[in-house]
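Worked example

This section walks through a single chain of length 387. The input is the sequence exactly as stored; nothing has been trimmed or padded.
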Amino acid sequence: MNVAKLVVKNITRRRGRFVFTLLGITIGIASFVTFLSLGGGLKSEIKRESLALGANLVVTPKGSCAYEQVSILTGEQLPTTITAEEVESIRAIKGLTAIPFLTEKSAIRNRPVPVTGILPAEMKRFKGWEVEKGEYFSAPNGPEVVIGSVVARQFELKPGDRVTIRGEQLPVVGVLRETGSRDDLTLFLPLPLAQRLYKAGDRVSYVAVKVDDIVRTDAYIEKIKETVSLGVVSDKQMLKSVLAIVGTVNVTLQLIAAVAVLASAFGIINTMMTATYERKREIGILQAIGARQSTIFTIFLLESGFYGLIGGIFGVFGGLLISIFAAPLISQNAFTAFVKGSDVTGVFDLKVVMGSILFSVAVALASGFYPAWRAASLSPVEAISYE
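Given that input, the structure is written out below as tokens.
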């Protein structure tokens, strides 16, 4: 008796039932993998953006919450409340390099694009930018725009083209070399020009700070708080806070996916219990020709495991495909902006693939345990006399 052939024959004899049971576990695992992959890509992108920010400390309006910290990393629009006087007070502290940012929004061809007002010369040194095409800003307050590489590709912009911001047409003078961060998706303006266009007065959204001595970071935080009545957070604190929020959201999504997996598990139980009743006579014949209870138990358990294996494989690759196509379509907001436009290669994680397939098999085996036990516990007389 070839157990493998018997297992395949048994689960495919009722093709409609086989397909719908397989679809249940496939959809459940696909949803689980989708949320898992997007969550993993989200965390990787957050860490990369935190590193790309290039700051040891971030000064925010007093009372800012973690949502504003997420917005800093994504380049989203922030309240503009920090005054020029407060910025200068921070810049006057020895051992610090402070760069103010004004973050706003605009649109190109009806598609939203982040706009950031910067101090051109200081920002170039702070971030280590290189210009790929055209030139950098020619003046600290000229009516010019420098754009990220992704913006240039998306909207087919090049030096010499013009973009309209707040009703004013501005020439694109340069395209930055790709950085792999949100800078690639941003339009950069000289800070005075951005403040005028967005009627921000002398105010900015936040201040990024580099410290000369990392060991004295806590001391610098206290010094800034003594100097201005603003919030101060270290890059590590901000990263931890943002990851905590994202982690909570990710766990919630995975729990929703787990419900789909649980529903598919009951589908397998129902299929295997039905098979147990339909095949009582067959079980009796197997017992009559010498099959042991352990053999019958193994046959039924392998059948349910087969559902988990095939459904897991289809579900994993289906979930990864959904992740790839879903990422660029996610709405642009503070929590999902990390995923939108991120590198899809980060979605493919061997641990996620193998772990999800093993999880699918484990769920299927657990679901098939009781039906397999019921099938194996039938007495030969009861089984063979079943009509």
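What to look for: Residues 3-47+242-384 form one domain.
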